[in-house]
Write a structure and sequence with these properties.
It contains six helices and 15 strands. Strands 4-5-6-13-12-11-10-9 form an eight-stranded antiparallel β-sheet. Strands 1-7-8-15-2-3-14 form a seven-stranded antiparallel β-sheet.
Length: about 300
């Protein structure tokens, strides 16, 4: 099945007669479901030139499930780039560094990778959308966003620190008896939390349930840094887990998987890291930043 290029911006440009979101004509949009496959492919091939004409830098990729899975798998190797999950001010990053031993598991609708520093997993339902920041078909240097329709989001909107119990969805079996706590950032896009087996930290986090993230950091921030629990960014289609230690105040983040929790940015709100915008019809889940145009095989 050939997907529609629609990205949820349905407004016709009066000068060109093209949609300001997908760059199709009104006739192509109206007849899309009835057109033969060859004509649909021909329209897809004409879209890059039209997007350049309109100055559009965001578009949907017409990938099949196999193509999406292949792209994701190809990014999970040394030097390919970085995946980011989370919200503005609370993000987890996953990349594979040179010399890392990476374990990959690839199924029809699931891709997982683990290194000593962290892990990442994607589920690939039919409603996930791959969007590219760039006008052309050559996406090697483009930022790629995986997003879902706003009505398909998970439940990440809790307010205040919340215990989620044992982390049954942990990406390593040995971590599924550790306790997971959500910081309660109140976002539909993602949840950001801490996972630990430390009885001392569990007792302190249990006692702090309900606290706003700013209160939690003020009271327990130093202990959290010292204990350095696993940080877990969850979204509708997967998660990133970061095992690398939290750097001390004034320290630098390690190469490979790491997190950023930035109070000033968190206070501003927003479901996506600053500097990137997507249509309101979608909620971002994961963003891929390529390291080089070539990537890796």
């Amino acid at each position: 099945m050939i997907p529609s290029p629609c990205i949820g911006i349905c407004r016709m440009d009066s000068h060109s007669g093209l949609c300001a979101g997908c760059a199709r004509t009104s006739e192509e949009i109206g007849k899309w479901r009835d057109l033969p496959e060859k004509e649909l492919r021909d329209i897809w091939e004409r879209l890059p030139a039209r997007r350049e004409q309109l100055g559009l830098n965001l578009h949907r990729l017409g990938w099949s499930l196999e193509e999406l899975r292949s792209f994701i798998t190809g990014t999970l190797c040394p030097g390919a780039g970085t995946w980011v999950c989370g919200i503005n001010g609370a993000i987890a990053e996953f990349s594979v560094e040179v010399g890392d031993i990476v374990v990959r598991e690839v199924e029809e609708r699931r891709v997982l990778a683990r290194t000593d520093g962290g892990a990442i997993a994607f589920s690939l339902p039919d409603y996930v959308r791959a969007l590219a920041l760039g006008s052309g078909d050559d996406i090697r240097g483009d930022i790629i966003l995986l997003a879902v329709p706003r009505g398909r989001t998970g439940t990440f909107a809790a307010q205040g620190l919340t215990s989620l119990g044992y982390d049954d969805a942990a990406l390593a079996p040995e971590d599924r008896r550790a306790r997971l706590y959500d910081l309660g950032l109140g976002s539909l896009a993602a949840g950001f939390g801490l996972r630990t087996s430390s009885q001392a930290l569990i007792a302190d986090l249990d006692a702090a349930q309900g606290l706003h993230w700013s209160e939690l950091l003020a009271l327990k921030g130093a202990e959290i840094v010292r204990e350095s629990p696993t940080r877990v960014a969850r979204n509708t289609i997967g998660r990133i887990e970061v095992y690398n230690r939290i750097p001390p105040p004034g320290g630098t983040s390690p190469a490979g998987p790491h997190t950023h929790l930035l109070p000033a940015q968190l206070a501003k709100g927003g479901d996506i890291p600053s500097g990137i915008q997507i249509p309101d019809a979608y909620v971002p889940c994961a963003i891929y930043y390529p390291a080089t145009p070539e990537g890796c095989a």
